[in-house]
Amino acid sequence: QVRFVESGGGLVHPGGSLRLSCTASGDIFDNYNMGWFRRAPEKQRERVVLWTTTGYTKYSDFVKGRFTISRDFAKNTVYLQMNNLQPEDTAVYYCNTLESNTWGQGTQVTVSL
After folding, report:
1. pLDDT digit string (tens) for 53-67?
2. Exposure pattern of 52-62 as b/e (b: 16+ CB <10 Å)?
């Protein structure tokens, strides 16, 4: 069973950047349709971006032009580059397959002055 470990979160000022990492184990991430998701305090989890094994990628409107995914197949890792972060981006970020309901620990991103 594939598992994911997220890392790279932290505290940044508005306008700052972070790069999150999602490293897969147990299988190759490229075998799955996947996404980055986030859960802000007192809100439901929402999808940030999804990508499929066929190469389709879709960013949610609230991150378009600011967030970008990239992949390192040798490291079995997917990255989420986040630029121009805003306080409303504060959340725990997760990566997962589009089908799974089992979630990892995620990584906390806090955007604050």
Report:
1. 999 999 999 998 999
2. eeeeeeebbee
Q: Yes or no: say if 20 and 108 are a contact pair by the CB < 8 Å rule.
A: no
Contact at 8 Å (CB) between 89 and 67?
Answer: no
- CA-to-CA dists, residue 8 to 20, 49, 57, 79, angstroms: 4, 17, 22, 9
- Residue 69: which of 52, 57, 54, 53 has the closest Cα? 57
CB atoms within 10 A of CB 19: 14
- The single residue listed with the structure tokens 């997220």 is 6
* pLDDT tens digits, one per residue of 8-49: 999 999 999 999 999 999 999 999 999 999 999 999 999 999
Q: Helix %, strand %, coil % for the chain, to 5?
A: 10, 50, 45
Number of H helices, E strands in the chain: 0, 10
Distance CA(81)–CA(44), nearest Å, equals 22
